[in-house]
Amino acid sequence: MKHATHCVAEQYQEMYRQSLEDPDGFWLDQAERLDWFKQPALGGEWSFDPASISWFADGSLNLCHNAVDRHLGTRGGDTAIIFEPDDPETAGRTLTYRELHAEVVRMANAMKAMGVAKGDRVTLYMPMIIEGVTAMLACARIGAVHSVVFGGFSPEALAGRIEDCGSRFVITADEGLRGSKRVPLKANVDAALAELDHETPLDGMLVVQHTGAAIEMTEGRDHWLHEIASDNDCPCEVMAAEDPLFILYTSGSTGKPKGVLHTTGGYGVWTATTFNYVFDYQPGEVYWCTADIGWVTGHSYIVYGPLMNGATSVVFEGVPNYPDHGRFWDVVDKHKVNILYTAPTAIRALMREGDEFVTSRDRSSLRLLGSVGEPINPEAWRWYHDVVGAGRCPIVDTWWQTETGGVMITTLPAAHDMKPGSAGLPFFGIQPQLVDNDGAVLEGAVEGNLCITASWPGQARSIYGDHERFEQTYFSTYTGKYFTGDGCKRDEDGYYWITGRVDDVINVSGHRMGTAEVESALVLHDLVAEAAVVGYPHDIKGQGIYCYVTLNAGIDGSDELYKALRAHVRKEIGPIATPDHIQFTDGLPKTRSGKIMRRILRKVAENDYGSLGDTSTLADPSLVDRLIEGRQNR
Ligand code: WT7
Questions:
Q1: ipTM of this complex prediction, to 2 decimal places
Q2: Where's the Acetyl-coenzyme A synthetase N-terminal domain (predicted)?
């Protein structure tokens, strides 16, 4: 049973039981799927009150060794990465594990030549190209802590993330490509650095030549990868299990984005184990996760999980609708993809274009389909299953979060029945609990707030530089429990149905956006007095961004200002934060003590006036009618 790849229902039950009865024994067993310099004897040592989490603390290992070097003897000639470029006419690239090793070593040597040392934070601002992956692995190799910032974030957002973790090094490319559009990555980094106060905000920048665009290089600071890379020996650093592996910024309900911190051993065991069981990966199969390495899905299930399992992982630079809406299925056919892992927002967008784009492609290589990032509506689920998978392929709907490191709730192929719209059952070691708003535990088939009661190896250890915020955010709402921020239903079969965020976070196209972040961006604009932002149901994106804005005295909300504000938010955060609607209003609904009643704003945005609830506590109850009248639906 140990390390079985196939896992049927009884095995799941038995293993799940073991994982709860003897978590240390269970996870120390699973830890054996990795190569350790020093095998751990310790399992989990943790508390949620106060929050202090460690796994395998006496072990040491290196995840680059596990993702790359350890395969050289057994499968050095097997394909590690298939790179599929944005433009299907451009030549792609395939890397064996041996070739991947050589590329990672070159990248690591270039980083060392710039002065990067163990423990240094390195910001990656990369397109979806092989060098994005090798830069992550090179950091892991030399013990540097990567902080990948999604290439779609603005220079302002990038600057904040460089500053927050005190990173002195950036790795980027001349430009990125997405749907034939060029993204000026290097120029964006320069603009970000100009935002920072210091005269010398960086010690070094490594630039990958990708499109060949002419860019400015700052003498002494900026280096072309191909000029300073070398093939010298570059051994993997010995890392303690609890040494940091990466920081990844994610939005919360308040304040600026949080640098979620993951460490080496627990994250490694969690991603390797979940990848194996969730995707039931078989040697030789081609696996494709369509995420970007700028998100946790890319970290765990494009890079670490698949490569630690010796899998073949597709790295796709493009978008689902370029050159046409059949691109995903072209890629599936071209590379004979067996396992596809994508997001409901992409499924809904493609579903809208009709079946022809799908059925005109072969897709017979597909064996298993995965969904991640947001609840998948049953209609999209059925289309994914019936049309994309031609009714042949099971779907794994995987619920998890940046903070959980890897999959937490899912059905397992061959072990469980699927229910469209339900993520399914807890993974090994995971103990979900539903509580009401007062923290009372709810049993049976019921709806409540989703908490996890016991630690698991892949759990985030802290928020970089702010452990107090870590405790506050996740462990203080329901003392002694990890609170996910999600609402959830449990049915009579014990299946979990995620209903969405219950905090002030909205999920736009599977990306988390803090309403507070968009609000702060809006009020930075000279003409804006106050702003309140809420989510509302959106056909394609899952949730859209709806903004209520009050303007400074004497200013009218014109069409021009509407456009200017949208552009302003894009500039401050990035295109993913672009408001869908901006409603200019003469006031925000506040209680007499000045608290904004977001419930009312949500209902108006949702076009759901029947259930506005009690509005009598508003300082100005007449405002509600004016809000309804001004509702935006452009
Ligand atoms: C939030 C986490 C998981 C990696 C990508 C997003 C929502 C995620 C599902 C799912 C319903 C889901 C939750 C969660 N979510 N997967 N299968 N079903 N909701 O990571 O940016 O940290 O966002 O995404 O609301 O809290 P993230």
A1: 0.99
A2: 12-67
Q: Hey, is 96 helix, strand or coil? A: strand
Annotated binding site for ATP: 373-375, 397-402, 486, 501, 512
Q: What is the pLDDT of residues 470-513, one digit of tens each?
A: 999 999 999 999 999 999 999 999 999 999 999 999 999 999 99
Whether 253 lines ligand 1, by a CB cut-off of 6 Å, is no
Residue 297 C-alpha to ligand 1 middle, in angstroms?
10
| Residue 96 one-letter amino acid | T
Q: How confident is the model at residue 613 (pLDDT cuts 50, 70, 90)?
A: confident
Q: For atom 23 of ligand 1, which residue has the closest CA?
A: 401
Answer yes or no: is the C-beta of 547 below 6 A from any ligand 1 atom. Answer: no
Amino acid making up residue 187 = A
Span from the CA of 401 to the centroid of ligand 1 (angstroms): 5
Residue pair 288/332 in contact (Cβ under 8 Å)? The answer is yes
Q: What is the pLDDT of residues 253-284, one digit of tens each?
A: 888 999 999 999 999 999 999 999 999 999 99
> Three-class SS of residue 536?
strand
d(CA 377, CA 151): 28
- Given ligand 1 and candidates 401, 427, 504, which is best to mutate, with the most ligand atoms within 8 Å of its CB? 401
Cα torsion 241, 242, 243, 248 to 10°: value is 110
Ligand 1 close to Cβ of residue 374 (< 6 A)? yes
605 ligand 1 Cβ < 6 A: no
Our answer on whether the CB atom of 397 is closer than 6 Å to any ligand 1 atom is: yes
User: What pLDDT sits at residue 119?
Assistant: 98
Burial 50-87 (b: 16+ CB within 10 A, else e): ebebbbbbebbbbbbbbbbbbbeeebbeebbbbbbbbe
- 400 CB within 6 A, ligand 1: yes
Residue type, 265: G
Nearest ligand 1 atom, CA 500: 25
Sign of the alpha-carbon dihedral angle for 295, 298, 303, 306: positive
**How do strand 145-148 and strand 121-125 relate by DSSP bridges?**
parallel
Contact 402, 246 (CB under 8 A): no
Q: What is the DSSP string of 196-261?
A: SSSSS--SEEEEE-SS-------TTTEEEHHHH------PPPPEETTSEEEEEEE--SSSSPEEEE
